[in-house]
Fold:
Amino acid sequence: MIMQLDHTHDAACKSWLESADAPGCDFPIQNLPFAVFRRAGTGEAFRGGVAIGDQVVDLGALSRAGLLNGLAGQAAAACAQPALNEFFAMGPAAWRALRHRLFALLESSVFASTTNALRGCLVPQADVEYTVPARIGDYTDFYTSIHHALNVGRLFRPDDPITPNFRWIPIAYHGRVSSIGVSGQKFRRPLGQSMPPGAAAPAYAPCAGLDYELELGIFIGQGNAQGEQIGVDAAQDHIFGICLLNDWSARDIQFWEMAPLGPFLAKNFATTISPWIVTMDALAPYHQAWTRSAQEPQPLAYLESPKVRAEGALDIQLEVWLETAQHRSRGDAAERLTHTSFKHQYWSVAQMVAHHTVGGCNLQAGDLLGSGTISGPGETEAGAIIELTRAGREPLKLANGEQRGFLDDGDAVIFKGWCEKAGHARIGFGENRGEVLPALDSV
Ligand code: CA
Structure:
């Protein structure tokens, strides 16, 4: 079955809220992404909200306002909690019922009495703070961009840059949940062991190769029972939505520690996600055909289907921006390092979910999958600084005169994402921002 579009994807529809109709707005009425928020600096309970224009629809207030009933009402009541797991577990019918009801309430032709009631449920985005939107039980980080794998592999193994399994398996490792934070996260540069070139013993010091990884975060909606599989064609119905994810990485620590069991301290000190989750319903117009060239191995049967071929790729535009402490102190604009699209990814989101469960692993509502670093084919499409600077050997020269081989203390890395296509509304993901603080004094 090919992705279904409905009236909520109609680009001609406007909201009565003017800010939602502004050109370039990330949150028009066709988007309606979910977050968990409260008024900043208050002791209010966190609760679910939906973005529209420059406002948040407070789903706790909305569920008490008597504007919803039936399945949409039950869904909004679930969203009034401080984590969205129960809502995720309700499944696609409930997600769609709430989306359709919110669309009807926010659409420009609705009665004035309704807009007046709804205005009482709006909180300006400028006045809120966010938290991680679900209790994340497990976090899995994939490695699914062949351009990233080749760019990094060529730095260290020029004759054999990519392991043979990459072309057959959506490779992943199980990650760390406790250090996942929401946009605005600040974290200390990690300390750890690394093996300097030519040294006889490792050094213990602050990380000297701090990097970001441009990724998408995929939130699981309904899970599966242990011992059962989610087939590649059913995967879409098990995914609630997608956010922007930064898998901060300590490269010098990583290269020393990861043989033979994979990343550990190099990845577990911080992971930053954007607050807004864009739903799979909102992303429906931006699916594309997924292709695998005839020169490459074709997927095994459990990762293959006509549906994957027809719509497995997602055209999500992505940017990486770097804002240094000097940018901030002088009031200069951040500098864009990268612009690419998720459509280049070697493995699709559905294939990641199918592979994750093929051995009987049970996914649960609120589980988070990282897509793996997203790098496109071009020179300016790399999703990590290690690729842009060839492991620091060719530092980036910034417009303000600064140079970077890896990240410095005070650097903030900002991801942006959006989808646009002729005949459809532009929808955005908002921003994912994280900032590097100096390391603790080392012992
Ligand atoms: Ca990663």
